C-alpha cells in the first residue's frame, strides 16, 4: 500500500485528469460524432462526402499521431495558447467522434425507412426528421456498441500520459523519478490497472441500466 498511502496527492490528481480527459473528450466525441453521423446519411452529396472524408482520414490515423498534431502541431500555427490537457481532450474527442459517427450511422440504418418518409410527408425538414424521429431511435438501438466506444475512449486516455498530461499512467514515471516518493513502479501500474477495471465495470453497469430503461420505454 506504500504506492497509495505515500502518494495520495498524485493519485487524486491522476484520477481527476483521467476523468477530465474522458468526460471532455466524450462530450466532444458525442456532439461531433452525432453531427458527422447525420452528415453520412444526409441527402446532400457534399455533406455525405465531407462526413466520409473526415471519418476515413481521422479513423485511419493512429491516435498517437492525432495527439502529436494537436499537442505539437497546434503551437506551430500561431493560435491562442492552450494547455496540453485541453489539446489532449480535443485530440481524443476528434478521434473518437469518428467511431461514434459510424456506430450511430449503423443505428440510423436500423430505423425503418417508412418512419423518415412519413415525417418528410408531413413537411418536416431533414434536420427535424433526424432529431425528432430518427436519432432518438438510433441511440436506443446502439447502446451496447456505443458504450464499447466509450470504454475504448477511457482506455485511450492512457495515451495522454506520453504528452505531459497528468493522467493515471503518468504516476509511474513521476514516482520512479522522485527520491521522495514511495512505491515500486510495478505496484503503481497494478493499482492503475485496478482503477481502470473499476471504471470499465461502472460503464458496463451504466450500459445495462440504459438498455433496461429504454427497453421498457419501448
From TrEMBL:
Superkingdom per UniProt: Bacteria
Gene3D superfamilies: MetI-like (1.10.3720.10)
Subcellular location: Cell membrane
Pfam families: BPD_transp_1 (PF00528)
InterPro entries according to UniProt: AA_ABC_transptr_permease_3TM, ArtM/GltK/GlnP/TcyL/YhdX-like, MetI-like, MetI-like_sf
Major localization listed first in the record, in broad terms: membrane
UniProt keyword annotations, A-Z: Amino-acid transport, Cell membrane, Membrane, Transmembrane, Transmembrane helix, Transport
Membrane-traversing stretches: 15-39, 51-76, 82-101, 149-168, 188-206
Membrane topology listed for this record: Multi-pass membrane protein
The ABC transmembrane type-1 domain, residue ranges: 15-207
PANTHER family, A to Z: L-CYSTINE TRANSPORT SYSTEM PERMEASE PROTEIN TCYL, MEMBRANE COMPONENT OF AMINO ACID ABC TRANSPORTER
Protein family according to the UniProt entry: Belongs to the binding-protein-dependent transport system permease family.
Protein name: Amino acid ABC transporter permease
